[in-house]
Amino acid sequence: MKIVLDAMGGDVGPSVNVEGAVEAVNEWDIEVILTGDQKQIENELQKFSYDKKRIVVVNCTEVIENSDKPSTAIRKKKDSSLVVGFEMIKEKRADAIISAGNTGALLAGGLFIIGRIKGVKRPALAVPFPTPKGLSLLVDAGANVDCKAQHLYEFALMGSLYMEFVAQLSKPKVCLVNVGAEKEKGNELTKEVYQILSSSNLYFEGNIEARDIPSGYADVVVCDGFTGNIILKLFEGVAHTFSDGLKSAVLSDWKSKLGGLLLKPAFRSFKKQFDYTEHGGVPFLGVNGLVIKAHGSSNSKAIKNAIKQAQITHEALLINKIKDRISEMTDNGNGIEGENI
């Protein structure tokens, strides 16, 4: 498998991307193509030992910054590390692309250069998050702030296929984010989506309120990107606040310190469960190629695990599964907008 890694993406730049790539090729049977400033990348590569045949550097003279307008940057910065990587995916010279850089540019490149899967109107950002039962998937987590009912159905469909074939979960339960569990609750959008999901062949379990999302009741949590991004950021904020508060309480006096020392292994295990670096990256579902978004503040461990996620998703043939399901629905005369699909 060949994976393109945008070496210039992220808050830190080439150092963590290069280190993560080296760790990945030293552990797994993959090849990594690093796109970006060749001099900077090679200076970082000199610090490590690795199979020189499995990491290739492609020089690029431009970088898409976080401050750049996504669509404009994709059109104008043709020799950027991101655009060059997308062209490799389009030309089938690589199997996946990963970037910790500009999220909007990553989505714009996926749409304008690679293109959408036929039949999918809106690609979505799918974010796995930990629960007491394992992992659930939040989709959309921010790619589409304004949505129609049909878009949310697509998110549910693609999220279900991800959990079935990548997470190896049989019959994933789908729930729709709403202000109440009753089907009559919500705005016009959620009411319409409820009807579509109820008449589909997905394992739809109805509405879910925000307080029940962390429980893991739903395997696939569906909402528009505006709501999903708020949920995601709230999760992050609560986790940080809880962690800081717990640390302060443990260090408050000698008795608490002693108890904290005894509980340190349990705390470490709990923290690992909620550590985003363990998952590395999240996919844009609906793009006709494997596009993985890594966190902007990713360290080398997160980049390494993003590469692993790309490998797992590629081997699960997720994009083909989405294509096949949509094609099957069209061939049956229902279309992606039909009922009983």
Automatic annotation (TrEMBL):
Q: Name one GO molecular function term.
A: phosphate:acyl-[acyl carrier protein] acyltransferase activity
**Reaction(s) catalyzed by this protein?**
a fatty acyl-[ACP] + phosphate = an acyl phosphate + holo-[ACP]
Report the enzyme's class at the first EC level. transferase
Going by the entry's taxonomy, the superkingdom of the source organism is recorded as: Bacteria
Entry keyword annotation includes Lipid biosynthesis: yes
Pfam families on file: FA_synthesis
> Which pathway does it serve?
Lipid metabolism; phospholipid metabolism
Q: Which UniProt keywords apply?
A: Acyltransferase, Cytoplasm, Lipid biosynthesis, Lipid metabolism, Phospholipid biosynthesis, Phospholipid metabolism, Transferase
> GO CC annotation: what is one?
cytoplasm
Task: Kindly list the residue ranges recorded as spanning the membrane.
Answer: none
**Keyword Transcription regulation applies:** no
Give the SUPFAM superfamilies listed for this entry.
Answer: Isocitrate/Isopropylmalate dehydrogenase-like
| PANTHER family, per database record | FATTY ACID/PHOSPHOLIPID SYNTHESIS PROTEIN PLSX, PHOSPHATE ACYLTRANSFERASE
Q: Which family does it belong to?
A: Belongs to the PlsX family.
Functionally, this protein is described as follows:
Catalyzes the reversible formation of acyl-phosphate (acyl-PO(4)) from acyl-[acyl-carrier-protein] (acyl-ACP). This enzyme utilizes acyl-ACP as fatty acyl donor, but not acyl-CoA.
User: What is the recorded name of this protein?
Assistant: Phosphate acyltransferase
